[in-house]
Design goal:
387 residues, alpha+beta, 5-stranded mixed β-barrel, 14 strands, elongated, disordered N terminus
């Protein structure tokens, strides 16, 4: 019986698929292929989009990129593998040998044995044109394609690194990341002025709200985070009033500082980051701490202004004193809506503060990008909601 079993195993083994002549091609990303330390003919497979095509009499050159690296991998093939389908923008799968490149422009190149077109691309109709430097305004019309360009690819990579670095910093410092609501009944910073949520026409019930209370898209997560445990504004206004520059919005005490004002203040102070503190109470959310400073009536708020952008950070101390907060909410008729917030002051309140950073503005600052729309993967702005 034992001999029969051994024989059956041998038959099964021999009847399996024959061994390939070569080792199966290892699938690599373009980044890994470019960083390979041993380029001695290892057979690999890459997938990506064609960034350039150059066909000579006997040799075909392709540059292929899969998004893992800004640099593309050069593919060298026999001219017999050329095809009308190998066009700029088309997606391909290439198998071949990774070898050391004789050119000084790159360390390695892929000597293609097989090129398979996965997705055709008509270069004439494709809105991103080969070897053309498209203005950022043009690329905004095609948010689904602009990430294939080097400039937007670079921005998205830096955006990813910046996000990771910020999260890493706070994690290493012992902070906890809290996901606050996107939809809120607390119109803490004027969100209801622009983005109040209502059911669509077919679902709308007269005199009723979907959530039984008015709901808005939040513009700040700071309020909900409380569930878990320079120069003054007055000086800034005086500087602006004495400026020789003509502003679109006239600076006045009690009016909010506009971007043009913020940029001027940064330049006035030597083109360095500037903290502006103690804003009028009427300009800030109800939860800012009252400075009790007489007729001006300011709150302990702070904004950080940076070159080229204006406001980057906004924050301040929170009103931890129950009676101050209760009186303020009562005057606004919001006591019932924010009863939960008052409860935080009734049960174990402590002096505390908080801030928020405009992440896209941070990217503008470190990259020198003028328009905030160009550091957002899919920007949303008036009269434009592409995709």
């Amino acid at each position: 019986m034992l001999g029969v079993r051994c024989l059956l195993r041998s038959v099964r083994f021999c009847s399996s698929a024959p061994f390939p002549k070569h080792k199966p091609s290892a699938k690599l990303s373009v980044r890994d292929a470019l960083g390979a330390q041993n380029a001695s003919g290892e057979r690999i497979k890459i997938q990506g989009w064609i960034r350039s095509v150059r066909s000579q009499k006997e040799v075909l050159f392709l540059h292929v990129n899969d998004g893992s690296s800004l640099e593309s991998l050069q593919v060298v093939a026999d001219s017999g593998l050329d095809s009308r389908e190998l066009t700029f923008g088309s997606s391909v799968e290439v198998q071949g040998q990774l070898i050391k490149s004789p050119s000084k422009r790159q360390n390695v190149e892929l000597k293609a044995e097989k090129i398979k077109v996965i997705g055709n691309c008509d270069a004439k109709d494709f809105p991103i044109k080969y070897k053309e430097r498209h203005p950022l305004e043009y690329l905004r019309q095609y948010p689904h394609f602009r990430c294939r360009t080097n400039v937007l690819g670079s921005i998205l990579r830096i955006r990813s690194e910046a996000t990771a670095a910020i999260h890493s910093f706070f994690k290493d410092s012992g902070f906890v990341h809290i996901h606050t609501p996107i939809i809120t009944s607390n119109d803490s910073e004027g969100a209801g002025e622009l983005f109040q949520l209502e059911p669509s026409g077919k679902l709308k019930v007269p005199e009723e709200n979907f959530f039984n209370v008015p709901a808005f898209l939040t513009v700040s997560g700071q309020l909900h985070l409380e569930v878990m445990s320079g120069i003054s504004y007055t000086e800034a206004v005086e500087i602006l009033k004495q400026a020789s520059q003509n502003f679109t919005f006239t600076p006045e005490w009690g009016a909010d500082l506009r971007t043009e004002h913020e940029k001027y203040l940064v330049k006035h102070c030597g083109n360095i980051p500037v903290f502006v503190i103690n804003y009028p109470l009427a300009l800030k959310p109800f939860y800012m701490r009252d400075n009790e400073d007489g007729p001006q009536h300011t709150v302990a708020a702070v904004d950080l202004l940076v070159p080229g952008v204006g406001e980057l950070f906004g924050g301040g101390l929170r009103e931890e004193r129950y009676h101050f907060l209760e009186e303020r909410l009562a005057r606004s008729g919001l006591t019932e809506v924010y009863q939960w917030y008052l409860d935080l002051r009734r049960f174990g309140s402590v002096p505390h503060g908080g801030f928020g950073m405009g992440f896209e503005r941070y990217l503008q600052c470190i990259l020198g990008v003028d328009n905030i729309k160009d550091v957002i993967p899919f920007p949303r702005f008036p009269h434009s909601c592409l995709l």
